[in-house]
Structures are given as structure tokens and as C-alpha cells.
Amino acid sequence: MSTTEKQGLLNPEGRAFKLGSVGADWIDQRTSMSSVVKNFARKVFPDHWSFMFGEVALYSFVVLLISGTFLTMFFVPSMDEVTYEGIYEPLYGLEMSRAYASTLDLSFEVKGGLLFRQMHHWAALLFMVAIFVHMFRVFFTGAFRKPRELNWLVGFSLMILGMVAGFSGYSLPDDVLSGNGLRIADGLMKSIPLVGTYMSMLLFGGEFPGTDIIPRLFTIHILLVPAAIMGLIAIHLVMLVVHKHAHYPGPGATDRNVVGYPLFPVYTAKAGGFFFIVFGLIALVSATVSINSVWAYGPYDPSPVSAGSQPDWYMLFTDGGLRLIPGWEFTIFGYVISLNMLIPMVFYGLFLAALALWPFLEQWVTGDDREHHVLDLPYNAPVRTAFGVAWITEYILLVLGATNDLVAIAFHISINDLTWLYRIGFFVAPVVAFIVTKRICLAIQRHKRDLVLHGVETAKVVRMENGEMLEIHEPLNEYERWTLVQHDTFRPLKEGNGVSGLRAKASSFFFKDQIDPVTPRELRAALEHGGHERHKIEALTGPYRELEP
Q1: Coiled coil where (predicted)?
Q2: 27, 153: one domain
């Protein structure tokens, strides 16, 4: 387009500009979009690096949709047996499912197929990483409190759906690794008394592996789960706009405003650039680092189980629980009750439910029913932070349990000894993590309280004429001080007036040992004392700047 043509489009008197204005006005009269766009564009969002993890999850999902659309054009979700006659010679002439054969064709014969396969898989891993990190940023800062409890549940549901999408996706190639994962799922279902066998037959279309599981997983993977994820993302973003964005404590930050920049033009420009950064990094990793090399495993055969077979990292914890629990089972009325399957499944439900229901549990314990838009600093909520660290510790223990064979081989140690170490750690490590984390949070609270009252130590000491030793402290400025004193003081609920004994004890435990923020009276006294000491030092040595090296 020439410069003259461009100027014509931008000229208010030009024909193209007038036609565009008429068209925009016609659409606006029927949709009222101008007011929506105007209000949304001026929406203020805080500027902090930790808020970017939610964007990483969103952009990874966009990459998943783009790459998944490409893969859908070539993948054949069928378990019909065929003889492989493709270009990958080690598997030439073998019997395999059409799903596995089409995956090999995608990898070796479709231009860009292997790159798109790997981009899809790496984007899925990044999607789950970003969701986990984003959720724990929300958790540790208390962003889930009123009015955002439902949005927390939406985010939790996205995490679960991401797991379902990942499991259904890496089960589609029908190789040995994915088949082993489906075999575990089949075993878990069959361990459920009375109905387990019927559930397995219904899902697999007969005795495992059946002939229907791949087409059914394909429908779940490309239709049901993506639609649910897109719907929840839309709900999540709408709630974000309606509730307004939470922000960190700082100058001007209150529960009645948002300190930051408008969506347009600041965040639209940032978001566009950040999307291409995420896309570029996924493409770079996918082009240089191999993942899910299905040709190395071969087509699925129920008889072999490859050594070192683990699912993707976000599903490892489910495998870890199954490996760590002893083989407990008993028979009652002719039914085998497999506790080694049932106990892990019950634990997984409670484990995830504790995270999902924490906002409501914390509100019940604290009795705090106010709206919160200013985030907590994690050390100001020691029990919440300690619980989060304990939850992560338990998760890591289960992940390590799922890799016990690889760790034992790598470090030349007994797999039995390692399994027992993980079993003991399963009960001990979260408790230790909780206690240590809480003590660290309380120590940080005391340190921050000292900073407010006495300022920052400068390591400069002055000896007075009477022999008294005074250290020079640099007081905090008013902005730094406000960040450290703005949080609220809560007291445990007392039994009575509708408060049960259990709730009172839980409330006492939640607030036990917590350090109160500096009061205005304490701050005035500290400033007066500091000013007096400063006056004594300056009377002897002159202004502080003369003491600078």
C-alpha cells in the first residue's frame, strides 16, 4: 500500500474513513459494543511479574488449540489392526493400530508433523506448570478470599481438566507407554467393589483394551475437555473483570481501588508481545528437545511393561501413591477388596479437595467475611503458608515415589530401601515442612517489625563520650514502612455465640504465635527514640553523611 493510500484511510475527509465510520456506527447501534470496549479498555490492572503466570497458561492453551487443530487433520483415532508400511524401517511390517500408524506417519511423513506434535506436548506441560504456579501464587497471597472464592474453584477445575486433557491426549498414540497408563486406569476402575468391572467394560467397550477406548478418548480430548476449558477460561476472565484485580500492598493500594495501568494501550501491547515470547520459546524447545518418541516404545501390547514408564509430571503423584502403598487386599463375600488401589484413590480425592475447599475452610476458621482486594504477604499468614508448603511437600514425595525405579538405578541403591524412605517421608516430611515454614514466617514477621521500629542496620557504630555504643540505623521511608504495617490484626474466635468448640480451637491454632503489626503509638515512640539517638550522634560526630567512607 502506498503512502498516499495510507493517508487516505486515515483522512477524516476520505471516503474509506467515512465508510468505516458508517459501518462501525451501524454495528454499534445493534450491539452497543462501544461502551463495553470503552469501559473494558480503561480497566486497570496491577503491574507485577507474578501475575504473568496466568497469562502463560492462557497463551499455552492458545498454542495447544493451534497445534491440536493441525494434528487432528492427520491423526486417525481407530484401533483397527493394520500392517505398518511406512518409512520407519525398525517397525516396518509390524501389526499395529491405525492410531499408532497414523502417529508414526505424522512424525516421519507429514511436513512439520513432528514439530507440531512436540509443540503440542510441550505446550501442554507448560500449561500445567503455569496453572500450578498461578494457583499457588493466588493461594500464598490470599487472593482467593471474598469475593473470589468461586473464581478459585474455577481455577481449580481448570487444573483438573488440564490433567484430564493431558491423560486423554498422551493415551491416543496407542504405544506401549500410553497403553500402560490405560492399564493402570483400568486396574483402578476394576478395584472399585461391585461396579468396577462394569465401569471398565463400559469405558473400554469390552475386556481391556477393547476396541473403543481410542475413539472415545479422542472425542473427550478434542471436543469435550477443550470446550469445558474454554468456557471456564471465559468465566474466569469475566469474574476477574467484575471483581477487579487484586494487588500487592504498597503506596496507594487499598481494598477500594486498583493501582496499575489500563488494559489499553499498555497491557494490550504487553500481552501481544508476551504471547509471541511464549510461542517462540515453545517452538524453540520443541525444535531442539525430543519428547514422547512413540517409535522408541513400539505399538501397544498388553504383555510387556517397559522399565521407567512414567506419565507426564502432573500425573506422577497418582502413580507414586500406587507404588508406595503395600499390596494390601482381602476377600469378603467373594469380592476382592484391593486396599492398595482404594486407599490411594480416596487419598487423592481428599488431597485435592483440601486445596479446592481451603478458601471456605479458612473463612470458617477466621470468621473473616470481608472483601479483600489487597493481597497478603505470605509470611503474614503463617498457617496458610505452612499448609501450602506441606501440600507441595506431599506432592513432591508422591512424585519421587513414582520415580523410585529410576532413582534407584541412577544412584545404585536398593529400590526397597528407597520405597521405605518415601513411605516414612510421606507421613513425616509434610509435618516437618509445616513446622519449619511456620517458624520461618514468624521469624520474618519479627524481623519486619524490627525494621519498622528501628530501621535498617548500617553496621556503623559510634562510641559516645560516656562509653555508650550506638549503632546508626537508616529509617525506612514512608512507602516501605506502610507496606510492612498495613495488614490487619485478627483475634481467634471464642467459643459461644454460635461458635463451636471445634471452630474455636481451629481459630486459636490458626492465629497462634502470630506477631501483631506495629501500632501507631509504638511507631511514634520508636521514631522519637530514634530521633533522640540521632541527635546525640550528630552532636558528637556531625551529620551522618560525614560518617560515610
Answers
A1: none
A2: no
Does residue 17 contact residue 6 with C-beta atoms inside 8 Å? no
> Which uninterrupted H or E stretch holds 378?
none
Distance CA 359, CA 386 (A): 15
Task: Tell me the three cell numbers of residue 489.
Answer: 490484626
- In the DSSP assignment, the letter for residue 315 is G
Task: Yes or no: say if 338 and 181 are a contact pair by the CB < 8 Å rule.
Answer: no
Whether 231 maps to a domain, the answer reads yes
Cα distance between residue 327 and residue 472, in whole Å: 65
Q: Are residues 30 and 121 in the same domain?
A: no
Overall pTM > 0.90: no
Q: Backbone phi, then psi, for 329, in 5-degree steps?
A: -160, 155
Please indicate, yes or no, whether residues 162 and 106 belong to a single structural domain of this protein: yes
DSSP 175-236: BHHHHHHHHHHHHHHHTSTTTHHHHHHHHHTSSTTTTTHHHHHHHIIIIIHHHHHHHHHHHH
Please give the tally of structural domains in the chain.
3
State how far the Cα of 103 lies from the Cα of 297, in Å rounded to an integer. Answer: 13
CATH code, domain carrying 187: 1.20.810.10
User: Percentage of the chain surpassing pLDDT 70?
Assistant: 88
Establish how many alpha carbons lie within 13 A of residue 83's alpha carbon, considering only the half-sphere containing its beta carbon: 2
The region that residue 245 occupies, defined by phi over 0 for left and psi between -120 and 50 for alpha, beta otherwise, is beta
What's the CA angle centered on 122, arms 177 and 293, to 5 degrees? 35
Which amino acid appears at position 238 of this protein? V
DSSP letter for 45, please: E
Phi (first) and psi of residue 198, to 5 degrees: -65, -35
Question: Is 323 part of a structural domain of the chain?
Answer: no
Quote the pLDDT of residue 539. Answer: 64
Report which DSSP code applies to 144.
Answer: T
From residue 437, alpha-carbon distances to 142, 292, 381, 442 in Å are 17, 37, 11, 9
At 349-401, the pLDDT tens digits run 999 999 999 999 999 999 888 899 999 999 999 999 999 999 999 999 999 99
Q: Which residue range(s) make up the domain with 448?
A: 439-541
